[in-house]
Amino acid sequence: MKILCVVETPYRGTQEEQDDAVLWFTHALKNAGGAIGVLLRGNAVNYCVTSQDPTGITIGKLTIEHPCNPYKDLLKMQGAGITVHAVREDIAQRGIAPQSVAHDFKLVSNSELPALFSNYDQVWHW
């Protein structure tokens, strides 16, 4: 069974954890033999910006010792065979410059989403 994990809400729970839980879970499914793909949309398209540096995050007097780095996590996921897509219009809508988006991720337009979804048996939206 092929599963597409659609990530729309980024940084969920990442102040408490060193990983984005959805990305971690998706990678774990792949490691267990699952056929998995990822689609970044909405605010989660920020995950595909190459110049992110989450180190040195401080909130009030609290320093985040092990911040999550979703961009690097996505690169590891690709190395494991997970295809990562991102919605082109969502990137543009957020003012993200095309040259700052990792070229390894497959950009798709909203009009291409039905065809992408049809390549999977299940679509999980997070």
How many domain units? Answer: 1
| Oligomeric form | single chain
Under CATH at level 1, the class stands as: Alpha Beta
What is the fold-level CATH name, i.e. the topology? Hypothetical Protein Ychn, Chain: A
What is the helical fraction, as a range of percent?
Answer: 25-40%
Distance linking N and C termini: 19 Å
Strand/helix succession: EHEEEHEHEHE
CATH superfamily caption: DsrEFH-like
Q: TL;DR?
A:
The protein is α/β, with parallel strands linked by helices. It has four helices and seven strands, in the order βαβββαβαβαβ.
Itemize the secondary structure elements and their pairings:
Layout: E1 2-7, H1 21-31, E2 35-40, E3 58-59, E4 62-63, H2 70-79, E5 83-87, H3 88-93, E6 106-108, H4 113-118, E7 122-125
Q: Can you characterise this structure?
A:
With 126 residues, the chain is α/β, with parallel strands linked by helices. The chain has one domain (2-125): DsrEFH-like (Hypothetical Protein Ychn, Chain: A), CATH 3.40.1260. 26% of the residues lie in helices and 22% in strands. It has four helices and seven strands, in the order βαβββαβαβαβ. The protein has helices at 21-31, 70-79, 88-93, 113-118, and strands at 2-7, 35-40, 58-59, 62-63, 83-87, 106-108, 122-125. It has a five-stranded parallel beta sheet. The chain has a two-stranded antiparallel sheet with strand order 3-4. It is globular.
